[in-house]
Each structure stands twice: as structure tokens, then as C-alpha cells.
Design a protein that fits this description.
about 190 residues, alpha/beta, two-stranded antiparallel ribbon
Amino acid sequence: MVLSAGEHVALMGASGSGKTTLLETLARLRPVAGHILLDQRPLADWGESALRERVALIGQRPFLFAGSIADNIRLGRPHATDEQIIDAARRARVLTFTEPMRAGLQTMLGPRGRGLSGGQRQRVALARLFLRDPGLILLDEPTASLDGAMQFEVLDEILAFARGRTLLLATHASAVAQRLPRTIRLIDGKLESA
């Protein structure tokens, strides 16, 4: 499989087909079986900090720590200004659920983001992404826990952010995949163009 610079691709496949494994392998979170190049350079040759700067992965269950929602977003760029945090939260539709909260973005979360739903956790992780400047974005079901209207609002923001960047988005939703110019299916461990 070749992903061209700036290309946006949907990755589809049945549950358990290996979509998550593929994304984690591309982010070098799993051992690499085979030869993977990132910017014409073997993945194994990338230094850890350079790779983490270049590649962003948001999994299905993003890690959130005990602390404020704003602090969890700020993990994407520790020196971000309050205005940048608010803008990232707006883009990820975090403000839609924090504005009614008394403490807003300063609302404290329990360990692993206790206090938020799965879809809310996913949006906090996306807000982190919007603070970064990765060349390759790997997203694993980023809108699966969202209702129809919110799913497409968030997807619009993801696609706007991904302009000029390479995006590989794993999804089960045909409606989401149809928004991307190319779809690849993972079937029996093999990638096939759809």
C-alpha cells in the first residue's frame, strides 16, 4: 500500500480484521513485519521524538489523565495558549458539552477521563490533535461514538485540519468513508482498493 503525501484514505474492514493493528504498526507502536517507509525513510530509522512529531495516532480509546479537560487538551502542545486551547476545543466540538458545565474546560476529570462519555473523550483527543502539526494522521474510528449530526460536524473539522497532510482514517461507517477520496479494505490480512 502506498499513501501519497497529502492523500486522504478511508480504511475499512470487519471488526477484528486488523485495522487497529495496522494503524499502530504505522505509528511504530507494534513490531513491524515487513518494510515500511515514511517520507522515503525506513520507519525503524526514525528517532522517537521526530516520529512522534511527524505522526499522530488517535485510537478508539484515547488516554485521558486525571486533571482538567483543558490540561488534557494541552497535552497536544504543552505550551499552547489558552486561546489555542479554546480554538482546538471549539473545532473538536468539546465546547458543546463543556459550556453547560460550571467549570467549563477547567472541569476536573477522574483517572482515564472518568466523567466523560466515549464520544466526549474522543473529541478531547481530537482537540489535542488540532494543536499539533503532524504530517501523517492516523485515526481509528474517530466518530464512531457520535450521533449522526455531530459525527459529520467533527468529520468536517478533521478533513479541514488534514488539508495538506496525509490522513488514514479507519471506520466501519460507509457514510464516513464516502467523504474521503479513496477507500482501502482490509480483508483476510490483505489490503485491497475498494
